Structure formats: C-alpha cells, structure tokens
Here is the input.
Amino acid sequence: MMKKLGDIVSERALAAFAGRAREVAALLQLFEQGGPLALYVHGVAGIGKSSLLEVFAARVRATGGRVVRIDCRTVEPTVQGFLTELSDALGEPLLTVEEVAERLACFDERIVIALDTYEAFRLMDTWIRQVLIPSLPVNARVAIASRNPPSPAWRTTPGWQGLFRSLLLGPLSETEALGYLTMSGIAPDVARRINLIARGHPLALGMAASIVLSETERTIEEAGLHQVIEALSRSYIEAVPDPITRRALEASSVVRCVTEPLLHALLPETPPRDTMERLVALPFVEPGREGLFIHDAVRSAIASSLATRDPDSHREYRRAAWAYLQNRLRVARGTEPWRYTADLLFLIQNPVLREAFFPSGPQPLALEPATPDDEPAVHQIVETAAPEREALFAWWRYHPDAFRIVRDRDGGACGLVVMIRASELNEAVDASDPVAAAWRRDVLLRDPSAALFCRRWLDRDVGEAPCASQAASWVDCKRLYLEMRGTLRWVYTVIANPEPFGEMPARLGFRPLAEPMIDVGGQTLYSVMLDMGPGSVDAWLTKLVGAEITAEEVESAKVLDVEAHELLLSSGRVGLTSLEFGVMRYLQERPGKAVGRYDLMEAVWGHRNPTASNVVDVVVRSLRRKLGADAASVETVRGTGYRYRVPIQ
Here is the structure.
C-alpha cells in the first residue's frame, strides 16, 4: 500500500507521545482473553485522556482492528442522537440498537467504540451501560474517556463484576515529563525547572513549553495545579504578540466552540478567517467537527479572568453569541439544531440547568428505570409522603415504567422520580390521584402530546426536600426535555412545600396553574406548570439566556438606589419623589416589557382610576427630566403605557 504524507505525520505524533505505556497496555487488554468489555479512563482536565485514546486507536488499527471514535461534545445526548452519530460513523442508517449490533457483527475484525469527553454524556450514562453495551456483538468493546470518575452503578450493577475496569490517569512521571519537554526543544536544565511547576501535567507542560520557547526570559511562578493552569493561561495571553489573537481568545472563552460566523458575530470588525487561523495555531485549541474547542481548563481560566477584569466585555460577548444563536436556530434544519442548542446551554449560568449538561464534578448517584424488584423500595420511599400514598401507588400499579430509581454508591434505592408523557397517562390513575385528574383537565385544553407530567420526586430520608437525590432527579428530567425537544411545550409538577426552593422554579419559568392548590389525602399540594412556548425547548433556553443577560445589564447599569430613593447617573445622584421612585422601580424590575398605565397606577398609587391615567404621564415626564441623558430608557408604548430599556453603557 502506498505510504502517504499523513502517515508520516501520524507516526511522528505517536513517537512524540510521552510515556503512558502502562495505560496503553491496560486499554489493549480489552481484547485479551478474560479482559473487560468496557474500560473507563478518567482524570482531571488536561491530563491527556484524549491523547491516550488517540494512541490506543492507532495501535488497534495497526493490528487490523477498527475504531469508531465519538466526541460526545458534538452529539445530542439522546438515544436518537447517538444512533444518528453511529449511523454516520458506520456508513449506514441505524434506527435501533439491534441494527447497530447487526452492523458491527458484519465486521470480521475487532471493533472499538471510543467515547471521548464522556462527561458531556451524563444524561446517557444509564442507557450506555444498561442497553448499548449488553447489545453489542462479541467482537466489539467500549473505551470511555471522561473528566469525572465512573458512576458507582458500573460496579454495583449485577453481572458487571470483572467485565468493567476503570483507570485513573495521573500525571506523567518525571522521566516522561522531561522526555516530552526535551522533544519539544526545551533545554534539560530549563525542562527540570518547568516540571517543578507543571508536576507532570501534560497541558501545563505544553503551555509552559510554549511560553518559554516564545519568551526565554519569562518566569512562571510555582503554585497548585489549578492555579498553575490559571497562571499559565494568563501568562500565555500576555505572551501573545498581537492584540487580535488576544481579543479572539477572550471572546471565544464565553462560548462552547468557535466557528467563523460566530467569531464574526463576536468580533464584527475583525476578519474571521484570519482570526480562526490564529486561534488554531495555539497549543490548547483543538479543531473539531463543529469548530474550534479551547481546552476547558484554559477557557475557564480566561473567561473567569475576563468576567472579573472586564465584566462589560464579558457580558457583551455573551449577548452577541446569544443573538447569533437565536438567528441560527430559526433556520437550522435536520440534526443541525442540536449544536446550537448545546451552544445556548453553555451560555446559561443557572446552576440547575448548567449542572445537567456541563457537570462540575463526579456524580455519586445514578438513575435507572425501575424494575419489579424495586417494588419494596418504592413502597418504602413513598411512605415519606404518607398522605399521597394511595395516589402514588396507583401510579406504580398502572405505570411502573414512569418510575426511575435513584441509586446510591452501593446500588441501593435512595430516591425516585415519577415522569410520563401526558398523552400516555392511563385514565384509571385519575380516580386515585386528584393531581393527575386536575392535570388532565388542564392539558386537554392544550395538547397532551406536547406535555410532560413530573408527578413527584422523593428521597428515602427527606422526602421532597432539596438533597442529592432530588438534584439527580432534576437532571434526569432534562433527559426527557431533550428527547421531546421540538414537541415539548408544557411541563407540570407539584410541590408540597415551595419555601425551600425559593425563586428557582419561577426563574426557570414555572407558574401556578389557574387552580394551584390540590388536596391529596388531607395534604395541600401546589401545582405549577412551565410553558416553554411554541418554540419548545430551544425557545425556552433562548429566553432563559436572554433573561440572565438582561438581569446582568440591569444590575450593572445601577440606575436606581432602592434604599436612598435616588437615581445613579454618570452626572451624579438625583433624588426622586415617592411616586417617581415607585414608577421607576416598577419599570426597572420588568426590563423590556410593556407596562400598562393602569397597571402602574395600581402598583404605585394603589388604585385603578380610568379617568386619571394622565397622572401617570405627568410623573413619567418628571422622571425623564431627572434621567437627563438616559431619558430614552423610559420608552412610550403607544396605546399601552411605558417600557424600560437598559441604558447602553
């Protein structure tokens, strides 16, 4: 076979790969007699997981095997999204797991499915473990690389003992680290000094080497590993010789991945192609199928520094990305919308949503579909909500498939969540559960096929109170959100005691039903619903990002000192009358929304007088005079009233 230039490049990359002989050998055990069916490599950001998978894949191919490598960052975390990715990789439409197994069995050689950046696939972990891997043919194995350690369920699930192994990837040894640096052109004495700081961490070694090679006189202070990455990121930006690349790095740090059109939206005065070429030359920027990915550890350090040092620019970059993604979602077709949905999710700072898709640490609990063996545990957990006992038992009787069990490190059931598509709910449940009956009456006025019922989440010890199993249940709700993306509009749920949850449900968009209070077994439950709007999940996410950015702008604008009843203007403080203050506060708390004159009158004056709406106009005119250069922030909405716009700083 003719040798190509690309083969030479690949060989050189493999030769330059530092150490990891033990780890590569562990991965190759996947195809040895008595070896595992799945091997899970995990380690901190930048430790070299992706590089290890790449070398492993090359070794498998060199010995006649096949590798299907999947970057989980680019795949929608749903069964359909994963099957679509496998279809593209294997060159044939595959609609079911059975069809995947048949396709893989057609190959005579060994085949590895390598799942990289698996931390982005948290919502799919149970399905991968319980459905995909057991269905694969005997010539197939699975290798996983993740920042987070595996869920305990991989070890505690019956049957997996001995068939699953995990491998913690640590720093390079001193010999390996020094070898890597000297191959990069670093003098031995300098290499030793660098490794005293980088401590064998591959990303830190690479960044330090780049800095030293570009500026031989620059010194790097010793610190903890996390601080090392942050310090190296700052040092690298300082070492970048041109301002265009520095600005591009900062702008790109607020988004999940960078494309030419998105970069143009972030930096409209900068030629995007030239800027992309500058970025791709950086040692911590990786080209991917969707665009350029800045290494997470570096991106996070740059974004945090920007948000602290220049919050206005950080916010403007987020707003520009948000506006661009809104436009792209309107015209996206086929499977393309997921990439923009993922980009929107990345912009969200709400911890309830962000943790579901971009987990910050290991996940000690796993959620799995309930089985008949779980019935005693279900009964025990339901007892924590004793007044609802009969209602929830009716759900278990007619819809055991709606129950998902939260399992602890030992595989025990420590919580549950009950969810079902509204169109699938058996009418017989209504007789035992007033909540189901009330929801059915409400959803029949809408569209049951576009609604999701989240009937209850309960913990074995604390019931519905905030806890780890409840957080895991909420994450699992997002799995169904994505599965119904494009059709889901309404989400119903119920709470016995709303107080511990504070403003979080309202911030996510949940509102009380027309008749929110429902009596179940002598206990009052509060029923709330989320209306995502006609645009389904994507429209809801877009709205959440917009609300966050607007809230940041309102906070940064600091137009009103609530305690002093004064305007805070660039020209100084201006006192307000009680009516002026009431109008300004009411409008500012509703940025961008049209507010009727009579609503203002009722909120500020305490009454509605249809014949005296001009008194509102008089106060607004006075308020505008005091706002001076910012008078345009209080807009007139013809035929309605007024609207507050955040002043441009």
